[in-house]
Each structure stands twice: as structure tokens, then as C-alpha cells.
Amino acid sequence: MDRITNKQLEILADRMNEVTGSPKEAWTRAKDGTLKANIGNFHISRAYGGACVHRMMSEGGGVTTPISYGHIPRRDLFELMHAWLRGFEEAKSQCSKKAAA
Fold it and tell me: Which of 10, 33, 58, 82 has the fewest CB atoms within 10 Å distance of its CB?
């Protein structure tokens, strides 16, 4: 079994941003040099030897953890992110079917 890399997790976070129409970058630098968090952005946090998906919830950088609570092994997070994406795409498909009916 191949190890899961940080890059693989970042690619999945980019995909989550894409399917939800969320900003790709976590932060934007203003002309005055200050940073502003991009609300809705999904990104990877790494700590304690594990990883976690964070989603920006405030301009000050407050986050929520929509997939797991805390930092978990990369392989576990990789599998959960894939499941989240499959679930999101399935829900989107079902909503489209109901709207067409």
C-alpha cells in the first residue's frame, strides 16, 4: 500500500473547493499588506503527525472541521475526503434529477 502524501490531500481539498464553488486560496493579501481569510475555502491543516480538513468560516481565519474532529492519519483523511466528494456529487445529481422532474 502506497503512502498518502500531503500533495494528494491538497489536490482533494482543491477538488472540494471546485465542486462547491469555494475560493481556491485560503488567504488574500490586501493592498495594505493585511491578510483576509477567504470564507468557504477548504484547506489541509497538519499537526501532531496527522492531517485535517479545515473550512474558513470568518474573515479573521476561524475554521470548522467538516469531515473529522482533529488531526488523523493521512490515509484515513484521504478516504474520508473521497467519501465526502462522492456524497456531495451524488447529492448534486439527485437535486438535478428532482429539478428536472
Answer: 33
Question: What long-range pairs does 48-52 form, CB within 8 A, spacing at least 24?
Answer: 49/73, 50/74, 50/77, 51/6, 51/9, 51/77, 52/77
Please state the φ and ψ torsions of residue 35, each to the nearest 5 degrees.
Answer: -105, 140
Q: Is residue 29 part of a domain?
A: yes
How many domains is the chain partitioned into structurally? 1
Residue 1 lies inside a defined structural domain of this protein: no
Domain limits for position 77: 6-100
Does some domain include residue 40? yes
The residue written with cell numbers 468557504 in the block is: 40
Rounded distance, CA 32 to CA 96, Å?
Answer: 43
Whether this model's pTM surpasses 0.90: no
Here the cell at position 71 is 488531526
Per residue in 35-90, pLDDT (tens digit) is 999 999 999 999 999 999 999 999 899 999 999 889 999 999 999 999 999 999 99
